[in-house]
Structures are given as structure tokens and as C-alpha cells.
Specification:
2 copies of one chain form a homodimer. The radius of gyration of chain A is 20 Å and the shape is globular. By secondary structure, the first copy, chain A, is an alpha+beta fold. In chain A, strand 9 and strand 10 (186-188) form a beta hairpin. In chain A, helix 1 packs across helix 9 and helix 5 (84-91) crosses helix 6. Chain A is built from 11 helices and 17 strands. In chain A, the strands form 3 sheets. In chain A, strands 9, 10, 11, 12, 13, 14, 15, 16 and 17 form a 9-stranded antiparallel β-sheet that branches. Chain A has a 4-stranded parallel β-sheet with strand order 3-2-1-4. Chain A has a 4-stranded antiparallel β-sheet with strand order 5-8-6-7, sandwiched between helices. In chain A, 28% of the residues lie in helices and 28% in strands. The first copy, chain A, folds into 3 domains: 2-80, Rossmann fold (3-Layer(aba) Sandwich), CATH 3.40.50.20; 109-166, ATP-grasp fold, A domain (Dna Ligase, domain 1); 172-358, D-amino Acid Aminotransferase, Chain A, domain 1 (2-Layer Sandwich), CATH 3.30.470.20. The interface between A and B is large, with 36 and 36 residues.
Chain lengths: 360, 360
């Protein structure tokens, strides 16, 4: 089959590497040729989206903020999976929140603000609030935290609409990687515990307690008629999960499934969108991901990371290092959750020299 | 680093796919462009071997029967790992057997015959014998089994020298995948139990008992000053291992290390030859390989295989199917060795419809 991927970042890159074992060809469409383009069977510049759509039997995306015309053309061809609805929800936070609330899924209380001034006013309705721009936000961009007393004075250097959310005083953040096949089969990996720092995933570890996340994921994918892999992030408060956000694609809290799992999220997604069977994923060993953000990788660092047993280094080959830029990750495995935590801490020390805040 | 691979078959293909996560480029040299060439950063036809050697920082091989000039040029450049000695042993069975015996490693008793007539005569010295052509034999090619009474009449349609070996009445066949790094560090995966049919690996499963194989592997790699991964096949007789043959490269009894192990044999080889750390491999879950030989793969077969939990299908994309031609394999994982065996039998039934002998 000819599989098209819109976007050429690291998610597409890993999807193609992992998809090599299947009898598919892979084609990339993007505005510039990122890592995925280098391992694809062909790269289409965004202007040639008609040729791209014609070449492919099925088309998916690895990034939400892609060319609208290309996406619509792919959608109209009937080849786009998981379709337009999920990407619309993802690109417009207001729609995402409203959809989830209206369908009865647990989310934090929120208001919709038409501009920054209204967002500041609405924020005072909560003890503590997060103001999130409705469009273009990811990795903590376009998010503003405030408490009631400071809300009116908050500096928001952005235009557009906002979601004003109650800031959840959570016990933990967690996520689940789930898929739905064309015949409705639902599958999910074991949930992971996620540690975010400054709005970016720092590390995650699986398995984690379910808290009801699997059931929510199953309902949501069914409700959306979704086909493919979705990553769903949760807050856990008082032992109950609330959806923080969804990602209609493979997810950065699922990279550890490349090791120690019976199927990776990447193969799971490819199997689902091409209609191949997806058996229930099994996690054979506690595993997790440490992100490498803003760190200059040299040979010495590479050697230090790889000398820790049970590690695999994924280096995305991006040009240029800067603060808050994710340039790679380390998959980490260990026989017990306790030794995984230890390895993760050891690696954090190695990669960030005990000062992650300097890089994020 | 620029890593060169001589040979473009499935071993090189998997090495490159698995090596994508490391910050290397991969270049292939071969007489024709097989599967590995399709995923490489560049392909060199065999005539351009000088350019190939110049382009690469380190050069390895994935197949023994490659162009001699190219190999020698790579060797003289000082970039060839694991070097010339192992490939010379592998290509000339007489040298392999003599080396192993002279160095004190356990092998079956054997004689060297200068032609087929002498081989027939020498075969009568054993109750049961295997006559193996010294050059060009793999996957059971150039091997002739006989007992004493029929030896003189044996049809050997081949010229050249032969090794005449005592046919070992073994309890089991097994193998170990081991590596040695430039600093002398030795690492090995857990051994696997191998089932061969008609001289070809049918399936294998790990972990298996060690029987002393690890110690032998360690001595052998040290003795050879070897750098990289070696696959060593053994007979187990009376609970003791005897070396059957060596393969100076990644090995088809190690493909399961792509799943459920802390490091695959492919990454292990790449790390060793580029001087990166190789921690001790951990096997997290019983796993094995079922080879797909001579089977026509269609969508229905693909679906059947992938509907078994804990399977990953590797389809090499070779043109043309014929009897005894290996066209892919299935990696199989299961939580216990018992359930692995069950899955393997289920898959054998699926792939070969209970009649493997029709395909081999």
C-alpha cells in the first residue's frame, strides 16, 4: 500500500522506520523536508498536494498545523484517516473543550473568551486559572497561568480567542495511547505516568494505574468514529481522570512502546489505518521516555546515555539546538518499575546535569 | 558517522532500519540493489567500491560471498570490521573447521578431502557423515548426508574441496548472538533453541539453556580480536555444546532481539563497530523467529499472521517466490516460554498449512 503522511517531523520519521517491516511505501507531504522526508520513499512539497493524494491509498497526519488546502483535498479524496473532525478539534481548543464537555467526558471547567481582555476577566471566576489560546498552542506555547488576584493585570501578548480553564490541582498527569480500527476494534496500551515541566513532557513511565482512562478512551474513539491511534492526556484528581487534551495521532508519551511492547504505537497506527489486525498490546517490561530538550548532543553525551543498560537513543537529526526545542529522546526499559524510576533519574542527571530548568 | 555495509540483503536492510535512530548515515555496496539499498542513504554499484570506501568511516558486511576486490580494498583502508580473518574462515569451511579445532574449540571430528572421490572414501570412517563443500555453502546447499554403507555410492554433483564431518547425533541445535567491542568488552544475548529443517532455520526461540555456549563465544571473539556481532551455531550433545558454524555478522537466529530485548543484535553490531557502549543485553520476554520460506504472501496471509498477538511481520520485499527462498520472517513474543511455543506452533500451522516440507 502507498501510505501518505502529512507532516515530516519526528513522529512521521518514527512511523516510517517502524513501518518499514510492512509491505508499504511511504510518502511525505510538508512545507519543508524534515526528518521523515529523509527516510520516506518520496517527498512532495506542499504545492504538489494533488499528486501526493493521487499517489497514496491512505493518508494520515503527524502534526496538526499543516496546510489547510492539502488537508481538505486529502479529506475529499476519501483517503484521510483519522479524518477531519479530530484535527479540527485539535486545532481549535474551544471546539475540543466544547466537544468533550458536550459529549459528557470529564474536563476541567472552562469559559470561552473572545479576546485577551475577556480572558482576564473570566479568569477571576477561578481561584487559579489557565488561559490558553484557542489556536496554535502546543508544548506550553500560548498558555498563561494566573491566580484570581493577579488575573486582571496578566500580560497576554496574543490575539485571538481563548479558553479560560480552572487550573486543576492534580495528583498526577497521565496518558493513554489507544486505537480504533475500521471495524470498530478498540485497543489500548497500558497508561503512562507523565511528568511535564514548563508545559513540555519531560519524562513518562509505563505501566501506570488506569483510573478509568481506558474506558474514556474507548468511548471517545467510538463517538468520533475514529480510525488510527490517538494519544489522550489526563489529569488525575481525587483518583479520577479528567481529559486535559487529545492528540489525533501517535503521541510523545507512547515512544517507549517501540521497546518492550508487543506492538509499537507506530505500527499500531499503520495497521489500524490500513485495516490490518491490531491485537491487544502487551507491555512486557516497564518502560518510559526521557525527552532531550535544548541539549547539545555530542559524542560524549551519546556514550554516557548509551552506557546505561536498557536505553535506546532517538536522535531526530534536526538542525540547530535551542532552549525548549526537542531534539531527541531516550527510550528506557528496566525489569521493575522501581529500577525504571532509578534509571530515569540517573539519565536525567546525565542529560541535564541536574538542571533541567536551564534547558526548558 | 558514515557506515558502509557490503551486501544489500535483508540483514543489511534490518541493520539500517534499526540504525536509523543513531546519528549515522548508511551506504550500501553490492552487485545489485537488494532490500537494504532501498532504505540506505546511498547505493554504490560494486564497480565504484573505491568511492564507497572513501565515503565511509567504518565498513562492515552482511553477507560472506561478496566481491573480493571491494572487500580487500575496504580492508586495506583500515575501516573494515570485523576484519578479513572472520570472513575468510566463513568462506572456506576447511579453514573454519581447522581454526576452531586448532584453537581448542569443540567441533565434530572431520577430515579434509581434496575432491568428491576422496570425500566419499573418508565418509566411510564415520558411522554417519556429512560431506560439506568447503566453499559457497549456506542454507543447506552443498551438504550431503550419508551413512557408512552408502558412502561410496553417494552422488556429489560438485567440484572442489570438502569437509567430511562426523554427523552429530544431537539433542538440540542452539545458537548465541555475541559481540565484542574495540575495548574488548564482550556481550551476549540469551541463547536460542533452533529448529532447522532441510538445512534451513525454520524457527528459533529464546531463552534457552546456556550449556557453556557463552563462555565459548567469549573465548572465540577474544581469540579473533573480533569487533562486532557474531552468530555462533551449536549442536548440543550429551549436554555439551559443539560449534557447528560461525557467522561473522548479525544472524538469522537473532532477529527476535528486535522485540522484547533491551538491545537488538543490529543496534548491538552498529554500536560495537562505531565504538559506542554496549551494555549487557537483557531479554525481557520469551521471543523467537518463524521464517517464511517459499510462501506466497498475500493480504489474507498477512492478516492471519498479524491477528496472532505478539507478532511482527518482516517482509523483505524480494522479487519472486520459489521453494527454499526465505522471503520474510515473523518475530513472536509471549509472556511465558510455554505460550511462546504454542504461538509458534499456531503460526507454523497458519503459514505452512501443516506442510512445511512442501515449501522447503
Amino acid at each position: 500500500m502507498n501510505v501518505g503522511i502529512i507532516g515530516s517531523g519526528q513522529l512521521g520519521w518514527m512511523t516510517i522506520i517502524e513501518g518499514r517491516k510492512l509491505p508499504n511505501n511511504y510518502y511525505i507531504l510538508d512545507e519543508s523536508a524534515g526528518p521523515a522526508a529523509r527516510v520516506a520513499d518520496g517527498y512532495f512539497a506542499v504545492g504538489s498536494y494533488r499528486d501526493f493524494v493521487e499517489r497514496c491509498d491512505v493518508i494520515t497526519y503527524e502534526f496538526e498545523h499543516v496546510n489547510e488546502q492539502a488537508l481538505m483535498h486529502a479529506y475529499r479524496s476519501g483517503k484521510l484517516l483519522p479524518g477531519m473532525k479530530p484535527i479540527e478539534l485539535k486545532r481549535e481548543r474551544i471546539l475540543e473543550k466544547e466537544y468533550l464537555r458536550d459529549e459528557g467526558f470529564p474536563v476541567a471547567d472552562f469559559y470561552v473568551a473572545k479576546d485577551a481582555a475577556e480572558a482576564r476577566r473570566l479568569a477571576t471566576r477561578f481561584e487559579s486559572a489557565v488561559i490558553k489560546s484557542s489556536r496554535g498552542g502546543y508544548d506550553g506555547k500560548g498558555q498563561f497561568y494566573t491566580d484570581r488576584s493577579n488575573a486582571e493585570k496578566l500580560e497576554i501578548g496574543m490575539k485571538g480567542k481563548f479558553v479560560v480553564e480552572e487550573r486543576i490541582d492534580f495528583e498526577a498527569e497521565a496518558s493513554i495511547i489507544a486505537s480504533r480500527s475500521p471495524d470498530g476494534t478498540f485497543r489500548a496500551h497500558r497508561p503512562s505516568f507523565n511528568l511535564n515541566k514548563k508545559g513540555m513532557l519531560f519524562y513518562n513511565m509505563a505501566p501506570y494505574r488506569d483510573f478509568g482512562m481506558r474506558k474514556i478512551a474507548s468511548s471517545l474513539l467510538e463517538r468520533l468514529g475514529y480510525v488510527g491511534v490517538m494519544g489522550i492526556e489526563f489529569f488525575i484528581r481525587d483518583g479520577k481522570p479528567m481529559i486535559n487534551e487529545i492528540a489525533p495521532r501517535v503521541h510523545n508519551t507512547g515512544h517507549h512502546t517501540l521497546h518492550g511492547s508487543s506492538i509499537s504505537q507506530f505500527e499500531q497506527h499503520l495497521r489500524a489505518i490500513t485495516g490490518l489486525p491490531v491485537p491487544e498490546p502487551e507491555l512486557f517490561v516497564p518502560s518510559g521516555v526521557l525527552n532531550i530538550i535544548g541539549v547539545h548532543m555530542d559524542r560524549e553525551m551519546e556514550e554516557k546515555i548509551l552506557s546505561v543498560p536498557g536505553t535506546a537513543l532517538y536522535w531526530y537529526g534536526k538542525e540547530g539546538i535551542r532552549r525548549r526545542r526537542k531534539v531527541g529522546h531516550v527510550n528506557v526499559m528496566a525489569k521493575t518499575t522501581g529500577s525504571l524510576r532509578k534509571r530515569m533519574e540517573e539519565l536525567t542527571e546525565t542529560v541535564y546535569a541536574g538542571r533541567p530548568e536551564d534547558y526548558l
